Amino acid sequence: MEELVNEIQNHTEELIEELNSIEDFIYFAKPSPEQWSIAEIVAHLYISDSLMNKVLTGNVEIANRDPNEKTHILKATFLNFDASYKALEILVPKPGVTKTNEEMIAKLSAIRAEFLKIIWAKDSDLLCLDFTHPNLGQMTRRELGYLMLYHSIRHYDQIKVTKAAVC
Protein backbone atom coordinates (compact mmCIF):
# COMPACT_ATOMS: atom_id res chain seq x y z
CA MET A 1 0.00 0.00 0.00
CA GLU A 2 2.90 2.34 0.60
CA GLU A 3 3.62 2.53 -3.13
CA LEU A 4 -0.02 3.38 -3.95
CA VAL A 5 -0.21 5.99 -1.18
CA ASN A 6 3.03 7.60 -2.43
CA GLU A 7 1.77 7.62 -6.02
CA ILE A 8 -1.50 9.28 -4.97
CA GLN A 9 0.34 11.86 -2.82
CA ASN A 10 2.80 12.70 -5.62
CA HIS A 11 0.09 12.91 -8.25
CA THR A 12 -2.13 15.07 -6.02
CA GLU A 13 0.75 17.49 -5.40
CA GLU A 14 1.32 17.72 -9.16
CA LEU A 15 -2.41 18.25 -9.79
CA ILE A 16 -2.65 20.98 -7.14
CA GLU A 17 0.43 22.70 -8.53
CA GLU A 18 -1.17 22.73 -11.99
CA LEU A 19 -4.47 24.03 -10.62
CA ASN A 20 -2.65 26.80 -8.73
CA SER A 21 -1.24 28.01 -12.06
CA ILE A 22 -4.70 28.51 -13.61
CA GLU A 23 -6.37 31.91 -13.59
CA ASP A 24 -10.13 32.07 -12.97
CA PHE A 25 -11.01 33.18 -16.51
CA ILE A 26 -9.30 30.02 -17.82
CA TYR A 27 -10.70 27.88 -15.00
CA PHE A 28 -14.33 28.62 -15.93
CA ALA A 29 -13.88 28.71 -19.73
CA LYS A 30 -15.22 25.83 -21.84
CA PRO A 31 -13.29 24.80 -24.97
CA SER A 32 -16.67 24.07 -26.62
CA PRO A 33 -20.28 23.88 -25.44
CA GLU A 34 -20.16 20.08 -25.10
CA GLN A 35 -16.80 19.93 -23.29
CA TRP A 36 -16.24 20.49 -19.59
CA SER A 37 -14.45 23.52 -18.19
CA ILE A 38 -11.57 22.94 -15.79
CA ALA A 39 -13.99 23.95 -13.01
CA GLU A 40 -16.31 21.11 -14.05
CA ILE A 41 -13.44 18.61 -14.31
CA VAL A 42 -12.28 19.49 -10.78
CA ALA A 43 -15.86 19.29 -9.49
CA HIS A 44 -16.14 15.84 -11.11
CA LEU A 45 -12.94 14.71 -9.38
CA TYR A 46 -14.23 15.99 -6.05
CA ILE A 47 -17.61 14.24 -6.46
CA SER A 48 -15.86 11.01 -7.46
CA ASP A 49 -13.37 11.15 -4.57
CA SER A 50 -16.15 11.91 -2.07
CA LEU A 51 -18.17 8.91 -3.19
CA MET A 52 -15.05 6.75 -3.22
CA ASN A 53 -14.40 7.61 0.44
CA LYS A 54 -17.92 6.43 1.32
CA VAL A 55 -17.41 3.17 -0.57
CA LEU A 56 -14.04 2.54 1.10
CA THR A 57 -15.60 2.89 4.56
CA GLY A 58 -18.73 0.94 3.66
CA ASN A 59 -19.57 -2.75 3.62
CA VAL A 60 -16.77 -5.17 2.77
CA GLU A 61 -16.04 -8.87 2.59
CA ILE A 62 -13.08 -11.12 1.93
CA ALA A 63 -12.23 -11.19 -1.77
CA ASN A 64 -12.07 -14.73 -3.08
CA ARG A 65 -9.56 -13.68 -5.72
CA ASP A 66 -6.30 -11.79 -6.14
CA PRO A 67 -7.04 -8.38 -4.55
CA ASN A 68 -4.97 -6.71 -7.27
CA GLU A 69 -6.60 -8.58 -10.16
CA LYS A 70 -8.27 -5.58 -11.82
CA THR A 71 -5.45 -3.07 -11.38
CA HIS A 72 -3.89 -3.69 -14.80
CA ILE A 73 -7.32 -3.36 -16.48
CA LEU A 74 -7.93 -0.07 -14.66
CA LYS A 75 -4.56 1.26 -15.77
CA ALA A 76 -5.04 0.20 -19.39
CA THR A 77 -8.55 1.66 -19.46
CA PHE A 78 -8.08 4.99 -17.70
CA LEU A 79 -4.65 5.77 -19.16
CA ASN A 80 -5.76 5.10 -22.74
CA PHE A 81 -6.02 8.74 -23.73
CA ASP A 82 -7.25 7.83 -27.22
CA ALA A 83 -10.47 6.44 -25.74
CA SER A 84 -13.37 8.62 -24.67
CA TYR A 85 -15.73 7.75 -21.83
CA LYS A 86 -18.96 9.19 -20.55
CA ALA A 87 -19.06 9.84 -16.81
CA LEU A 88 -21.62 8.01 -14.72
CA GLU A 89 -24.58 10.35 -14.21
CA ILE A 90 -23.98 10.49 -10.44
CA LEU A 91 -20.47 11.88 -11.11
CA VAL A 92 -21.49 14.63 -13.54
CA PRO A 93 -21.15 18.08 -11.95
CA LYS A 94 -24.25 20.24 -11.82
CA PRO A 95 -24.42 22.94 -14.51
CA GLY A 96 -23.08 26.34 -13.52
CA VAL A 97 -20.20 25.34 -11.24
CA THR A 98 -19.37 28.49 -9.30
CA LYS A 99 -16.80 27.44 -6.70
CA THR A 100 -13.52 29.21 -7.35
CA ASN A 101 -10.34 27.37 -8.17
CA GLU A 102 -8.98 28.24 -4.72
CA GLU A 103 -12.08 26.84 -2.99
CA MET A 104 -11.97 23.62 -5.01
CA ILE A 105 -8.24 23.14 -4.43
CA ALA A 106 -8.93 23.26 -0.67
CA LYS A 107 -11.88 20.84 -0.97
CA LEU A 108 -9.98 18.44 -3.23
CA SER A 109 -6.91 18.55 -0.96
CA ALA A 110 -9.05 17.75 2.08
CA ILE A 111 -10.93 14.88 0.43
CA ARG A 112 -7.67 13.40 -0.87
CA ALA A 113 -6.12 13.59 2.62
CA GLU A 114 -9.17 11.75 3.98
CA PHE A 115 -8.88 9.19 1.17
CA LEU A 116 -5.23 8.52 2.01
CA LYS A 117 -6.04 8.05 5.71
CA ILE A 118 -8.74 5.54 4.85
CA ILE A 119 -6.68 3.60 2.31
CA TRP A 120 -3.75 3.43 4.72
CA ALA A 121 -5.75 2.39 7.78
CA LYS A 122 -8.16 -0.15 6.29
CA ASP A 123 -7.48 -3.66 4.98
CA SER A 124 -6.83 -2.98 1.30
CA ASP A 125 -7.48 -6.57 0.24
CA LEU A 126 -11.15 -6.58 1.21
CA LEU A 127 -13.84 -6.36 -1.47
CA CYS A 128 -16.03 -3.23 -1.27
CA LEU A 129 -19.72 -4.10 -1.61
CA ASP A 130 -21.32 -0.65 -1.85
CA PHE A 131 -20.23 0.08 -5.44
CA THR A 132 -20.37 -2.08 -8.52
CA HIS A 133 -18.53 -0.67 -11.51
CA PRO A 134 -20.65 -1.08 -14.67
CA ASN A 135 -17.87 -2.95 -16.51
CA LEU A 136 -15.57 -4.30 -13.80
CA GLY A 137 -17.96 -5.21 -11.01
CA GLN A 138 -16.97 -4.94 -7.36
CA MET A 139 -13.40 -4.07 -6.47
CA THR A 140 -11.09 -4.29 -3.49
CA ARG A 141 -9.98 -1.18 -1.62
CA ARG A 142 -6.59 -1.53 -3.30
CA GLU A 143 -8.18 -1.63 -6.76
CA LEU A 144 -10.39 1.33 -5.90
CA GLY A 145 -7.26 3.21 -4.83
CA TYR A 146 -5.77 2.59 -8.25
CA LEU A 147 -9.07 3.51 -9.91
CA MET A 148 -8.93 6.85 -8.10
CA LEU A 149 -5.30 7.39 -9.10
CA TYR A 150 -5.73 6.52 -12.78
CA HIS A 151 -9.02 8.42 -13.00
CA SER A 152 -7.29 11.49 -11.58
CA ILE A 153 -4.30 11.15 -13.92
CA ARG A 154 -6.70 10.94 -16.87
CA HIS A 155 -8.44 14.13 -15.80
CA TYR A 156 -5.14 15.86 -15.04
CA ASP A 157 -4.31 15.32 -18.71
CA GLN A 158 -7.77 16.65 -19.64
CA ILE A 159 -7.11 19.76 -17.51
CA LYS A 160 -3.86 20.47 -19.37
CA VAL A 161 -5.56 19.95 -22.77
CA THR A 162 -8.46 22.19 -21.74
CA LYS A 163 -6.10 24.87 -20.44
CA ALA A 164 -4.23 24.90 -23.76
CA ALA A 165 -7.49 25.02 -25.72
CA VAL A 166 -8.94 28.03 -23.90
CA CYS A 167 -5.74 30.11 -23.67
Explain how this protein is built.
- The protein has a single domain, classed as dinb family like domain (Four Helix Bundle (Hemerythrin (Met), subunit A), Up-down Bundle), CATH 1.20.120.
- It is 58% helix and 4% strand.
- The chain is built from 6 helices and 2 strands.
- It has helices at residues 2-20, 24-27, 38-56, 71-78, 101-121, 141-166, and strands at residues 60-62, 126-128.
- A two-stranded antiparallel sheet has the order 1-2.
- The radius of gyration is 16 Å and the shape is globular.
- The protein starts with a helix and ends with a helix.
Main β-sheet, spatial strand arrangement: 1-2
- Counting DSSP E segments of at least 2 residues, the number of strands comes to 2
Largest sheet: 2 strands, antiparallel
Distance between the termini: 39 Å
How many whole angstroms does the radius of gyration measure?
A: 16 Å
Which of globular, elongated, flat, extended, rod-shaped describes the shape?
globular
What class would the helix/strand composition place it in? Answer: mainly alpha
Which regions have little confidence, pLDDT < 50, spanning 5+ residues?
Answer: none
CATH class: Mainly Alpha
The CATH topology name reads Four Helix Bundle (Hemerythrin (Met), subunit A)
Strand content: under 5%
- Work out the helix count: 6
State the CATH architecture: Up-down Bundle
